[in-house]
């Protein structure tokens, strides 16, 4: 009783936001009900799906058994997702809601069960209309005839009661549809967590985002309306029975036009379904390509290749908009037929009835017009059928896509049935491991050979016949050349590959650090603790042994600094150490570390090896993948991997492995080299590499005391505030969609002459229809146009019907063209705008948010915006037309019609405020959900989440974000229903005015026309409220797209100087007092940097993490502008809106190449003149040829030549299609080292005068590195080369060394000059190396 009373008290607070003047914010959103939560509906959907999948698997097993015995079997059908949606997710409320809708159209069946008023309201309207008109006719002969109160009141209340029942049913449907969306999207997320995106070519990231952003969303929005489809036959049959009862067999003529149109509609439906399948097919391809382009945006921009990638995506879009043309044309065709249907049915039926029953012109108003109401009801489904057919097609295609994804192959568990000794941690016996048959992965090597031609579903093993045993507490190192299979072995051990035969077992819990670190978009602290409770002591010890203390101290908010998506504001070494710290903090039994040291410089690498791997983790079982053979001296055991096999299938000790490798000797230099350089090399003749500390030379090896528990007093609070939040909030505008947005959309549809014609064709059918309704009154009145006879007037009505169809079909063609043109222009403008944004935009905006504009919002515009816009314009014109019809002959009616219309406008304006805010809140929550989902899909995200047992935690996070999306969607839909209810009250008022006015002033025939028009007013009014909100929703999506198209900050396009065609001809580079910061509020990253690189010089750049090495590259490629006049605006982190940078935080300095200030040049011209090989290689889904020759300007011979130079020609030749071999999902068939070599080949082919290598050899083994360095010296002789490197032998024999420290150039000179100065940073670094260190990775 208490709970009931409590709920009754709380209920008034849950009023809808219909007349809300104050903007609706997140604080106003209610808590979600338990029945609508993701967790509950996931269980319901999962139970229904698993039951059907189990039955499906049984049938497959039976069919397989029968096929072995040659017994004929029927094809096994896939489990029905529709059965899950309707059978498992539906229930009694949905059943009763459907029955309630049914009762609106069926009277006789339920007359004894329910009150007539609540069951036959829709059917009663024409009957009551007939009674009122008859009374008016009698009143003409006898003024004392009383007003028909019962009939009048029933007819007045019909719109309201009809809407109450409809709203009640739809409220249930919307709860149901959101429950379906929540349940299925959770199943999709759950399934995703069981996939390896590396082994399922079909389950690409673009498709997965589309499943959540489009398919599941369509279920929530469109499913409720589809429940009207089964009721449509009843809506036709019941009025038909009544018409036949009144008019006899002549009434059957009303079905003639409907019977003719039905086969046409079924044919259109089949074509419509096909067009939607094609649309989504190209949508997946476009989403995937767009995602890859955005993720590799630095490579694209630094190569000045934006136009090439824009053209590639636009070509895919060009194919997709052909489908937009198709389904718009088909939908508009269907709409045209059904819009014309009421007039055709009326005309054919009237002609037959009047001729067979000999109805006079005088009786037309009482014997014909009231019955036309039933004919209107028969054709009413035609108004909604086109869009319902479109919605049903979308849902059918979408549920099939979801079903097929849920049936896709999951990552299987290893066969671990193997005897293991008590001291054994890992044991593998004669096991094969495979990625997908179409590709391998990461060091996934060259085993992709000829797999594309195979048709068998059997997976081709990448690792073959692996047998090994690893003792507990041992340090085992995995070594081998690039592409040998090292990373595949690591992935196989942790369960990220499919085991095709043999046995594999791991004893204890596992921590995994993949070669490409996965960093979540959260704080550094949360990335390290990763779902575990925060323990300050444990945390401090973890960051100490992972050498993160200094790095965290330099971050603006220390360990509470927000990290951008994919770790964009961390260096490669920092990302590797944060990932390692995550593993250390997890405190696991087995550690599988894939090349974590390759991205670290010498001092840090040595500290991490000593303090972490051989210190903190001592006693743990560790498998360390490394490209640097120096480290193997510390190993207990070594696995030497070659050609995807463990050599000899057994372990070796370090003493058994031949580590002696030839040393790289100084190459002849174009400039004189002083003598000390060879002395250094001779001094270290037994060493493979040379290491030097990254820190200030005067610092000791001891780490400074530093606590992360609180910020120091010396910290600048403004800097801490700026650094603690990196990701900007999504823009949120509470005002109405501005009128200029509508003009912008109109402008995108058609050229002005065609646009004017199109507007005329939108309005003209409404005018024809309104005039046809008015003409009914003329037909029944001899006094009007007496010179025209009764048959002629009927013929004119028929001509109007045919003319309406012709106009609508002409509009259909233009509308389809307009949708195609608009879809092309809107997408291309947004794509070009996003591609012109600075790289900081992608650092501060989650990829899911950006892609949501290209998926969810663009899909809404493609499929619904134009259709809804045409409908809304038509509905407004219909309302106005209804008033005009009644006012032509009775001007006094203007005292009733316009005021009612004004009330309608007030309702729409008031509700539109809340509707817009709710729609935008729903869009923001959807973007947040998609961003989180996209983050999981990013490289190594799924494997990291799984192996740290955080799957349940991320499912909870997804469920929470999904629930936020659900409740906002529900509130938005419920507001629509309440507004429809209020609209029905206004419609009843209008009907009341018509009846009372007609009783006193109108003739029977004019009153019949007026009531018929008022019935249309009720229908149009309620539909207008619904579709006007829909239009506002679609225009909100358009406005969001336009924000990205028109308001994002852009890189400058100003060109004030055009260099000579052969520029740069020398390659001289000058930095003059360069200082800049990446974002407002942050400290300067480079401080007054000045140096000069002579033409043809090779310069090595070194320095500790965060010293500013890579920032030199950002300045050189103008990823950051130095000229204050060219610096683009920034997006405010709180509002997401652009605002200018602070004038007090100016960037300064300039960079000259061959004497030309690069800030004066066109960006593409500058960037195409410099070749960059980045630390993190970027490979796109395309052929090998297209990945090397991005512009398509070189011959195959030239491509093979550069592949030979980087030692990749043998790998490529093993592919069946050679250069035409398609690399999927960012080159997942290649190892990281192989992808890096492709980037080398790309730079060699470009043959620029200036080459920049940004730590480009970190993922390459020593022997390959030496060969690459030799190739660079030979191929770039006489050209300017800048090498940012971790290995000293990479830069020790270069012309000059630039030492960066704290954002400044600490030293710049030749290696000999720096060594001669005993106090130099460089010389002290060399001297600080002990003989035992043997020159490791820097």
Automatic annotation (TrEMBL):
It comes from Blattamonas nauphoetae. SUPFAM superfamilies: ABC transporter transmembrane region, P-loop containing nucleoside triphosphate hydrolases. This is P-loop containing nucleoside triphosphate hydrolase protein. It is found in: Membrane. It is a multi-pass membrane protein. InterPro entries: AAA+_ATPase (IPR003593), ABC1_TM_dom (IPR011527), ABC1_TM_sf (IPR036640), ABC_transporter-like_ATP-bd (IPR003439), ABC_transporter-like_CS (IPR017871), ABC_transporter_C-like (IPR050173), ABCC_6TM_D2 (IPR044726), P-loop_NTPase (IPR027417). Residues 94-381, 754-998 form the ABC transmembrane type-1 domain. Gene3D superfamilies: ABC transporter type 1, transmembrane domain, P-loop containing nucleotide triphosphate hydrolases. Keywords: ATP-binding, Membrane, Nucleotide-binding, Transmembrane, Transmembrane helix, Transport. PROSITE patterns: ABC_TM1F, ABC_TRANSPORTER_1, ABC_TRANSPORTER_2. Residues 443-668, 1069-1327 form the ABC transporter domain. It comes from the Eukaryota. Residues 437-458, 661-698 are annotated as: Disordered. The chain crosses the membrane at residues 82-107, 113-134, 146-165, 227-249, 255-272, 749-776, 796-819, 864-885, 891-912, 977-999. Residues 437-447 have a biased composition (Basic and acidic residues). Residues 448-458 have a biased composition (Low complexity).
């Amino acid at each position: 009783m208490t709970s009931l009373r409590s709920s009754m008290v709380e209920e008034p607070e849950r009023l809808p936001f219909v007349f809300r003047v104050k903007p609706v914010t997140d604080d106003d959103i209610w808590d979600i009900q338990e029945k609508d939560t993701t967790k509950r509906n996931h269980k319901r959907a999962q139970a229904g799906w698993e039951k059907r999948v189990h039955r499906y698997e049984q049938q497959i097993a039976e069919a397989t058994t029968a096929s072995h015995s040659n017994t004929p079997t029927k094809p096994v059908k896939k489990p029905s997702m529709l059965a899950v949606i309707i059978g498992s997710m539906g229930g009694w409320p949905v059943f009763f809601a459907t029955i309630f809708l049914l009762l609106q159209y069926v009277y006789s069946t339920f007359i004894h069960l329910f009150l007539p008023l609540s069951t036959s309201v829709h059917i009663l309207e024409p009957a009551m209309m007939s009674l009122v008109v008859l009374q008016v006719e009698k009143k003409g002969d006898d003024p004392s005839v009383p007003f028909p109160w019962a009939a009048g009141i029933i007819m007045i209340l019909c719109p309201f009661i009809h809407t109450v029942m409809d709203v009640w049913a739809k409220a249930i449907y919307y709860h149901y549809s959101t429950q379906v969306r929540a349940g299925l999207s959770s199943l999709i997320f759950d399934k995703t967590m069981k996939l390896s995106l590396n082994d399922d070519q079909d389950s690409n990231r673009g498709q997965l985002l589309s499943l959540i952003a489009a398919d599941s969303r369509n279920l929530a929005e469109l499913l409720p309306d589809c429940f009207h489809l089964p009721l449509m036959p009843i809506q036709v049959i019941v009025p038909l029975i009544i018409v036949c009862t009144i008019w006899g067999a002549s009434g059957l003529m009303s079905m003639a036009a409907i019977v003719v149109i039905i086969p046409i509609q079924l044919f259109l439906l089949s074509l419509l379904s096909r067009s939607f399948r094609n649309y989504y097919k190209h949508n997946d391809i476009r989403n995937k390509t767009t995602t890859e382009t955005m993720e590799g945006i630095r490579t694209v921009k630094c190569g000045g290749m934006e136009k090439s990638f824009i053209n590639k995506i636009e070509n895919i879009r060009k194919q997709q908009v052909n489908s937009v043309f198709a389904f718009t044309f088909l939908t508009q065709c269907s709409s045209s037929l059904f819009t014309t249907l009421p007039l055709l049915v009326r005309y054919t039926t009237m002609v037959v009835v009047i001729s067979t029953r000999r109805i006079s012109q005088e009786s037309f108003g009482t014997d014909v017009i009231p019955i036309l109401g039933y004919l209107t009801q028969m054709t009413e489904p035609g108004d909604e059928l086109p869009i319902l057919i479109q919605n049903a097609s979308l849902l059918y295609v979408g549920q099939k896509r979801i079903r097929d994804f849920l049936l896709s192959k999951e990552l299987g568990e290893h066969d671990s049935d193997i005897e293991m000794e008590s001291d054994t941690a890992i044991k593998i016996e004669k096991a094969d491991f495979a990625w997908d048959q179409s590709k391998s992965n990461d060091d996934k090597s060259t085993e992709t050979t000829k797999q594309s031609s195979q048709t068998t579903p059997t997976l081709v093993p990448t690792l073959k016949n692996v047998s090994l045993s690893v003792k507990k507490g041992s340090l085992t190192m995995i070594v081998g050349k690039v592409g040998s299979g090292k990373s595949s072995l690591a992935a196989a051990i942790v369960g990220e590959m499919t085991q095709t035969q043999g046995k594999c077992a791991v004893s204890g819990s596992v921590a995994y650090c993949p070669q490409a670190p996965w960093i979540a978009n959260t704080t550094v602290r949360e990335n390290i603790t990763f779902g575990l409770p925060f323990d300050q002591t444990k945390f401090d010890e973890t960051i100490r042994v992972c050498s993160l203390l200094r790095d965290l101290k330099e971050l603006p908010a220390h360990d509470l600094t927000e990290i951008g998506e994919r770790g964009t504001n961390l260096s490669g070494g920092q990302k590797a150490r944060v990932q390692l710290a995550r593993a250390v903090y997890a405190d696991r039994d087995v550690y599988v570390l894939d090349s974590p040291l390759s991205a670290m410089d010498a001092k840090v690498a040595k500290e991490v090896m000593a303090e972490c791997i051989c210190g903190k983790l001592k006693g743990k079982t560790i498998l360390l993948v490394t490209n640097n053979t120096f480290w193997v001296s510390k190993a207990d055991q070594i696995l030497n991997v070659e050609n995807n096999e463990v050599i000899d299938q057994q372990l070796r000790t370090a003493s058994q492995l031949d580590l002696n490798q030839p040393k790289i000797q100084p190459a002849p230099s174009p400039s004189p080299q002083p003598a000390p350089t060879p002395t250094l090399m001779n001094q270290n003749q037994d060493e493979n590499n040379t290491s030097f500390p990254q820190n200030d030379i005067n610092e000791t090896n001891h780490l400074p005391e530093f606590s992360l528990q609180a910020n120091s007093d010396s910290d600048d609070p403004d800097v801490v505030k700026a650094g603690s939040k990196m990701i900007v909030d999504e823009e949120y505008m509470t005002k109405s969609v501005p009128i200029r947005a509508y003009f912008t959309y109109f402008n995108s549809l058609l050229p002005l002459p065609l646009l004017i014609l199109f507007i005329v064709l939108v309005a003209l059918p409404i005018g024809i229809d309104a005039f046809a309704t008015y003409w009914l009154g003329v037909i029944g009145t001899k006094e009007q146009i007496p010179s025209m006879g009764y048959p002629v007037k009927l013929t004119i009505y028929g001509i109007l019907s045919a003319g309406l169809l012709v106009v609508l079909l002409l509009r259909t063609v233009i509308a389809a063209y307009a949708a195609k043109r608009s879809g092309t222009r809107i997408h291309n403008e947004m794509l070009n705008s996003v591609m012109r944004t600075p790289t900081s935009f992608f650092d501060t905006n989650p990829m899911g948010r950006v892609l949501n504009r290209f998926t969810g919002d663009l899909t809404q515009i493609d499929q619904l915006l134009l259709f809804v816009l045409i409908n809304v314009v038509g509905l407004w014109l219909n309302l106005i037309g209804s008033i005009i019809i009644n006012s032509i002959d009775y001007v006094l009616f203007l005292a009733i019609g316009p005021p009612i219309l004004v009330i309608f406008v007030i309702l729409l304006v008031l509700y539109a405020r809340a509707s817009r805010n709710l729609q935008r809140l729903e869009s923001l929550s959807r973007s947040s959900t998609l961003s989180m989902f996209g983050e999981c899909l990013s490289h190594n995200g799924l494997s990291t989440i799984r192996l740290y047992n955080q799957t349940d935690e991320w499912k909870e996070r997804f469920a929470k974000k999904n629930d936020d999306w659900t409740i906002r969607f529900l509130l938005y839909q419920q507001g629509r229903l309440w507004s429809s209810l209020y609209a029905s009250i206004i419609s009843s008022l209008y009907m009341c005015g018509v009846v009372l006015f007609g009783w006193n002033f109108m003739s029977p025939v004019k009153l019949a026309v007026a009531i018929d028009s008022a019935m249309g007013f009720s229908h149009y009014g309620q539909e207008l409220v619904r579709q006007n909100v829909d239009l506002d929703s679609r225009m909100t999506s358009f406005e969001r797209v336009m924000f990205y198209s028109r308001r994002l900050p852009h890189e400058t396009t100003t060109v004030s100087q055009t260099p000579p065609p052969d520029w740069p001809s020398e390659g001289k580079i000058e930095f003059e007092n360069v200082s800049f910061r990446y974002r407002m509020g942050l400290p300067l990253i480079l401080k007054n940097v000045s140096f000069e690189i002579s033409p043809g010089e090779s310069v090595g750049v070194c320095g500790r993490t965060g010293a500013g090495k890579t920032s030199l590259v950002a300045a050189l490629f103008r990823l950051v502008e130095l000229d204050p006049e060219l610096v683009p605006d920034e997006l405010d982190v709180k509002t997401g809106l652009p605002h200018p940078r602070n004038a007090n935080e100016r960037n300064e300095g300039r960079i000259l190449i061959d004497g030309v200030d690069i800030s004066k040049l066109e960006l593409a011209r500058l960037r195409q003149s410099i070749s960059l090989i980045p630390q993190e290689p970027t490979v796109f889904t395309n052929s090998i040829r297209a990945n090397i020759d991005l512009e398509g300007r070189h011959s195959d011979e030239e491509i093979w030549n550069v592949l030979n130079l980087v030692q990749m020609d043998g790998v490529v030749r093993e592919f069946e299609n050679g250069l035409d071999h398609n690399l999927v999902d960012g080159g997942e068939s290649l190892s990281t080292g192989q992808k890096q070599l492709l980037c080398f080949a790309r730079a060699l082919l470009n043959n620029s005068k200036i080459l920049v290598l940004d730590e480009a050899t970190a993922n390459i083994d020593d022997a390959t590195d030496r060969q690459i360095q030799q190739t660079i010296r030979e191929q770039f002789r006489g050209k300017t080369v800048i090498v940012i490197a971790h290995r000293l032998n990479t830069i020790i024999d270069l012309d000059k060394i630039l030492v960066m420290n704290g954002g400044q150039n600490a030293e710049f000179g030749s290696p000999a000059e720096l060594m001669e100065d005993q106090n130099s940073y460089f010389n002290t670094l060399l001297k600080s190396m002990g003989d035992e260190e043997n020159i490791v990775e820097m």
